[in-house]
Amino acid sequence: MEGVRSERSVEKLPPLQGPVIQRPRLQVWFIRVCSSIIIWTCLVQLVAVGELWHPRLLTGFPGFTKMSAHQERSLPSSPPPLVPARNYTSYGFLKVSCNGGLNQMRSAICDMVVVARLLNLTLVVPELDKTSFWADPSNFEDIFDIRHFINSLRDEVRIIKRLPKRFGLRYGYQPLVMPPVSWSNEQYYLKQILPLFDKHKVIHFNRTDTRLANNGISLELQRLRCRANFQALKFTPEIEALGNKLIHIIQQKGPYLALHLRYEMDMLAFSGCTHGCAEEEAEELRKLRYAFPWWREKEIVSEEKRFHGLCPLTPEETALILQALGFDKDTQIYIASGEIYGGQRRLAALRAAFPKIVKKEMLLDPSDLQQFQNHSSQMAALDFMVSVASNIFIPTYDGNMARVVEGHRRYLGFKKTFQLDRKQLVELLDLHQNGTLSWDEFSVAVRLAHERRMGQPTQRRVVADKPKEEDYFYANPQECLCECTSCGDLSGHGNTTIFR
């Protein structure tokens, strides 16, 4: 009986198929959910990679609609591959503090790139002027695309955002602070500055304006100045976007003339020019001169400076000159400047002659400009972009912006830029206004005076031992405009028609 019972109990057992594990139902569902999440994550990653390498790869699948041609063109292009970094032994760190307005600092930055390259130094991203008349708190990265600046020059010079900590003031390190000598050539930096790095690993140039000569610099370094200026110094995406929007708004209305009307308080005070000002305005400008100790010349005879062509043209004088050059009342004029001294009262004659005068504040919504308020250099960057893109550019004073814009326009194909001969114009204006010259005589004389002053290719003027009287490198970087070292063969190309 026991044997029979045992046999029956064996018959009830299932066949042996390995160990059986009983899983709770909740655990099974948890595993399924996790597996689904992993699978979908992989699928999304696959789609993203597919779109990156071939945007049309997945357009045939349900849920993916084909983009329009406009949408495809608007996709951000992948950044170009980095140029190989230059391998060199750095002799030290060059720290610089730029001085002046936007365009003065821009030229100085390019010069300091060249100095760092010449001396095999590591350049620290330049500090911008925050103590000048404009008191702009902007840093380098607020105006220029800092990553682009560093990467685009890495095959020439090593650029870092800040000094290593061991060279900081917190660690007791004191760099050598000095201004280099103005208008210096390569030999000055090689013989006078480079040996200083044997003792001082960090040198801080606290002034950088015009510290490199216009002429006598090797062709390789001159072209590096251009590369830094025209390619490496790119405005931030925010400035570029708003500047392009502003240009588009103006161009929709037709060709335009960009007028750099430098009749602003700081320029009048700096130059000591008070022609056309009321007595109280002249006194205000005189006081401003004394408020800035680095403006060394204090007592100035305004009419004498005007006679020698050293004053910016007044808005009233500018209106007459533009009319004499052949511009009519339908000419669209963009005023690229800050606040005109004397306000709307001083602009009345210019507006009467040219009703189609516009400024960025008139064309853009206040919300567009809000982020740039109280940042004069960022506002100047917008004017710079509009001026470079204009059909014609006319500055009423040959300051830094006028000269740097002129150089950019030459680089872009010798775009028409009037270089007003203020000394001759003041004489002609006075003769016309006292009745000596009729309007027709005045107009003919003004046009004849500027036949060869419209941005045509020309040799940069060299004045031995008088660098201040030479043509500025950044206004006419001839080494970068021709394959040969001379632009003399191009000087026959005309540039004499309005809105060509």
Structural class: alpha/beta
Order of helices and strands: HHHEHEHHEEHEHHEHHHHEHEHHHEHHH
Radius of gyration: 33 Å
Helix share bin: 40-55%
In whole angstroms, the N-to-C terminal distance is: 121 Å
Which runs of at least 5 residues are low in confidence (pLDDT < 50)? 1-23, 46-76, 489-494
Strand content: 5-15%
Supply the number of helical segments.
20
Q: Provide mean pLDDT, rounded.
A: 84
- Note the overall shape: globular
- Give me the side-by-side strand order of the main sheet: 3-2-1-5-4
What is the count of β-strands? 9
Please outline the major beta sheet. Answer: 5 strands, parallel
Number of domain modules: 2
Subcellular location: Membrane
Membrane topology: Single-pass type II membrane protein
GO molecular function: glycosyltransferase activity
Pfam families: O-FucT
Indicate the topology.
Blueprint: H1 2-11, H2 25-53, H3 69-74, E1 93-96, H4 102-119, E2 122-124, H5 140-143, H6 146-152, E3 158-160, E4 176-178, H7 186-193, E5 202-205, H8 219-232, H9 237-251, E6 257-260, H10 265-271, H11 279-291, H12 302-307, H13 315-324, E7 333-335, H14 344-353, E8 357-358, H15 360-363, H16 366-369, H17 376-389, E9 392-395, H18 400-411, H19 422-433, H20 439-449
Helix pairs in contact: 4-8, 9-17, 10-11, 13-14, 17-18, 19-20
Pfam family, one: O-FucT
Membrane topology: Single-pass type II membrane protein
Family: Belongs to the glycosyltransferase GT106 family.
